[in-house]
Amino acid sequence: MNQVYRDDSVALHTDRYQLNMGEVYWADNVHNRRAVFEVFFRKMPFGNGYAIFAGLERVVRYLQQFRFSDTDLAYLEEEGYNEDYLDFLRTLRFTGTIRSMREGELAFAGEPLMRIEAPLIQCQLIETAILNIVNYQTLIATKASRIKHMIGSDTALEFGTRRAQEMDAAVWGARAAVIGGFDGTANVRAGKMFGIPIAGTHAHAMVQAYRDEYEAFRKYAGTHKNCVFLVDTYDTLRSGVPNAIRVAREFGDRINFVGIRLDSGDLAYLSKKAREMLDEAGFPNAKIIASNDLDEHTILNLKAQGAKIDVWGIGTRLITAWDQPALGAVYKMVAIEDENGRMADTIKISSNPEKITTPGLKKVYRIINRRSGKAEGDYIALEHEKPQDEERLKMFHPVHTHIMKFVTNFEARELHHTIFEDGKLVYELPPLDEIRRFAADNLELLWDEYKRTLNPAEYPVDLSQACWDNKMAIIRKVREDIEQKRG
Ligand SMILES: Nc1ncnc2c1ncn2[C@@H]1O[C@H](COP(=O)(O)OP(=O)(O)OP(=O)(O)O)[C@@H](O)[C@H]1O
Ligand SMILES: O=P(O)(O)OC[C@H]1O[C@H](OP(=O)(O)OP(=O)(O)O)[C@H](O)[C@@H]1O
Ligand SMILES: O=C(O)c1cccnc1
């Protein structure tokens, strides 16, 4: 094992191969050539019809802090990196330009979420952290949106911290959940950091600590105005709910009896019975909160059974993205400056046509039909193109090109915004409630066919003719070059 150093920077939050490539570029003096990379994912997470982009705020914070500390450099020296290379890294800062979707934007497979344009070595060194952040936060925001879709107008609370994949995931996951439509979190630190409303009841431990359930509820009521009693420690209907009602009656106006929480058993049956008991006791406004391994599937099922649940506490299955642990977003080069100072488009070829990258500097537009107010699809065009000037826009599937349509009377809304310009932050990070509203408004652009959680329709993400022609010409050129070199 190597020596251990103080963790005082984020610059080494990268893979070793990025530093290795950086050294190659630096030694060959090509490290400052302008390069362009794009972040995108290839498959819709959870089989959902849309994803919700999240992670930009943390990417911004990371890039603002990006610098190698003395201990970083000492560590890299020990790892055998060239001293002059390390001297170069010592003063390295992010000086690039980033165009990105805003957090809360709807995102789809195959389209660039972010575009990073910077000296080659910088593009490379920041790849790992950017993917780390965007992959996780976009995944959780999307999972939260699926769950919130089922919860509808009831309250959705994020309860996952104890089961999250470590502390960072818990707080940034709570924030992503809010972007996806959640109303609050149990994580107090996330509340402090992001201004998320915090909510909380109590655990079985408190009932066990007093042994007597009635006594425990009374103690809670004695110290808290807002009371939610957890009623399933011993027997929900015979003990828990009656004790909650008894304490609520005894304390009267001295407390605000918010309701009860169910955390085990048949949540449909118990919630209906508890609702009857609370109503009969004169507490029709007391809420029923449910938790216990909930996700969009159990919630749909519970609603179908007529469960009387007002507030849903969702932990493990949200914060760990239970059914799909990774989004799989990648970071691919689309252009690089050549030895003559001109930008040249680049491509990565694959035997799978869906995996061939799309070369060149591009923009992404959402094509919105002015008559219906709904999105027709997303349209990826080359930088210089102006789709909004077209009378009749041809949209076709980028792989199965015979699937096509013409759109008229549309708005072409650009999805990327400039975040950094030559290293300077030019974007004002919006407050979280604005991002949450933005995500909810965006969902209004989608037909219901794209929003159902089971087998949604595939939303079109198309290339412009010029973009497609450019891609085909580059594929042909690469093939010809290979043939020529083979002789
Ligand atoms: N009426 C229902 N329909 C469908 N799923 C339900 C219903 N009630 C509860 N569930 C879900 O079924 C699962 C039940 O979990 P489990 O079998 O561990 O029982 P439990 O009630 O948690 O038992 P324990 O007393 O050990 O906590 C949970 O995911 C819960 O959300
Ligand atoms: O089920 P989740 O979706 O992950 O939601 C969070 C869970 O965390 C708590 O359980 P835990 O057993 O850890 O503690 P408690 O029941 O004693 O509070 C809570 O009661 C929920 O069941
Ligand atoms: O407040 C609660 O009820 C809560 C918080 C975290 C996890 N489970 C429950």
TrEMBL record:
It holds the Pfam family NAPRTase_C. It is an enzyme of class 6 (ligase). Transiently phosphorylated on a His residue during the reaction cycle. Phosphorylation strongly increases the affinity for substrates and increases the rate of nicotinate D-ribonucleotide production. Dephosphorylation regenerates the low-affinity form of the enzyme, leading to product release. It catalyses: 5-phospho-alpha-D-ribose 1-diphosphate + nicotinate + ATP + H2O = nicotinate beta-D-ribonucleotide + ADP + phosphate + diphosphate. Residues 12-135 form the Nicotinate phosphoribosyltransferase N-terminal domain. Residues 158-336 form the Nicotinate/nicotinamide phosphoribosyltransferase domain. Keywords: Glycosyltransferase, Ligase, Phosphoprotein, Pyridine nucleotide biosynthesis, Transferase. It comes from the Bacteria. Residues 362-470 form the Nicotinate phosphoribosyltransferase C-terminal domain. Belongs to the NAPRTase family. Catalyzes the first step in the biosynthesis of NAD from nicotinic acid, the ATP-dependent synthesis of beta-nicotinate D-ribonucleotide from nicotinate and 5-phospho-D-ribose 1-phosphate. NCBIfam families: NAPRTase_put, PRK09243.1-1, PRK09243.1-2, PRK09243.1-4, PRK12484.1. This is Nicotinate phosphoribosyltransferase. It comes from Thermobacillus composti (strain DSM 18247 / JCM 13945 / KWC4).
